Amino acid sequence: MFAETRELPECLKAALKSVGYFKRDVELVGKTELKLSSNTCFSHCRSFTVVVDLASGTSRTEWGSWGGANPFEAKAVDRDETMYPMTIGVAVIKGESGGNGMCFAKLYLHPDNIVKMLPEQPTLTERQKGVLKIFDGLKPAYRKSELEREGLTTDDIEECLKLGFLDKKGNGTKITTAGKNALNNKG
Known about the structure:
The protein is α+β, with helices and mostly antiparallel strands and 187 residues long. It contains 7 helices and 10 strands.
């Protein structure tokens, strides 16, 4: 599931901002236990873990080494494989940040905390799912041909726009946070 960053509690918005995460939404993941370490994907990036106390708003950030684990530094973010229990009232943000302003992050919460943040999910028709998959997974230049191949029309797109699953600004149309959540709904 995804949450719009502007609708998160102030302490989580501040924690995301502190690691350079400025995207309009963030993925929420419910976990009962979690390890600190992350695998850095790119050589010009470094992993981070931010632990946030939701009641007090305090946070602690740990940064890994540039390019990931190396033999010269032993940082927990790069190496600690211990599974820690997720406590109710604590959020953990894990991701990586680096060159060219690139930043990836996921927000991990205990399932009891995550339930409070989840909106009720609508049931999608197969045509709506098809439209949302295309807008979520393809660049704009490839969408038209894929829509035609799947037999989807502008009426299907308009329906998704009316439901708030897509947003049209100028010449561009993109999937919204509500659209991502509806598409990823397992119910």
